[in-house]
Structure formats: C-alpha cells, structure tokens
Amino acid sequence: MRCPKCPGELETKTYGRKILVRRCSECFGLFCKPDVLSEMKREWHSEIVLDAGNPKVGDKLNEMGDIDCPECGIPMDKTYDANQRHIWFESCSQCEGTWFDAGEFSDLKYDTFMDRIRDYLRGARPPS
C-alpha cells in the first residue's frame, strides 16, 4: 500500500498481541482501524513504538488534508478529536480507517494542560 501523503510505502507494524497498524516507511504516518486505535490508547508505550516519526514532519503534512484512503481509495473525511480539537486527522467513511500524521497519535493518547492551550490557539478543523 502507498502512503496517502508521501511517496513512502505502508508497512505492517505490530505491538503486543492485538495491535496491528500500517506505518509509512518515510513520513511515519499511521493508518489504523477503530478497534485497534482503542487498543493503542490502552496499551502502555504504544505511542513510543508505533508513532516514531518526527512531529514537525507530521505538522507539515497535516496541511495536506485532501487524501484518499490507502485501503479503499475513496476520499477521506477531514476531522478532529472531539476532546482535543487541535488534533486534526483523516478518517474513511467506508472502511472506518483513520490516518494520523507523525506525532498525532502520541498527542491524542495524552490529554494535558498544554493541549487545552493548543485547542484554544488552533481551534477545531475548518470544514472541507
């Protein structure tokens, strides 16, 4: 599978017994399904092992919002996390896969005081 944001290839990465994601070999973006995402949030240190990319690269690629699902090939919806509005990501309405740029999952996993400031400064993602 090709990365939806760069020329890289999506490689299968596992963590623990229940976590299987696809991670880009170049930009380190992550593609996962809802059940896996829930498991990733619960699993200790999953963000360190799986979300290994440079968050600055992720921030730059986050500006590219019009992408196709790497699994289905249909345009993904631009969305944001309801609890941390500064975290913008893409989701597929057909296969329910989610694309996180490098650093986004790590930020999503932990809700800190600084996140409240980021929410205020950045706000919710504007509609497409």
Tell me briefly what this model is.
By secondary structure, the protein is of the alpha+beta class.
Structure description:
The structure is a single chain. With 128 residues, this protein is an alpha+beta fold. It has one domain. 30% of the residues lie in helices and 20% in strands. The protein is built from five helices and six strands; from the N terminus they run E-E-E-H-H-H-E-E-E-H-H. The radius of gyration is 14 Å and the shape is globular.
Any key phrases for this structure?
alpha+beta, 5 helices, 6-stranded antiparallel sheet
List the helices and strands and how they pair.
Layout: E1 10-15, E2 19-24, E3 30-32, H1 34-42, H2 46-50, H3 55-62, E4 77-80, E5 88-91, E6 98-100, H4 104-109, H5 113-122
Antiparallel strand pairs: 1-2, 2-3, 3-6, 4-5, 5-6
Estimated radius of gyration: 14 Å
Strands of the biggest beta sheet: in what spatial order?
1-2-3-6-5-4
Number of strand elements:
6
Average residue pLDDT: 89
Main sheet record:
6 strands, antiparallel
> What overall geometry do the principal axes of the alpha carbons give?
globular
Order of helices and strands: EEEHHHEEEHH
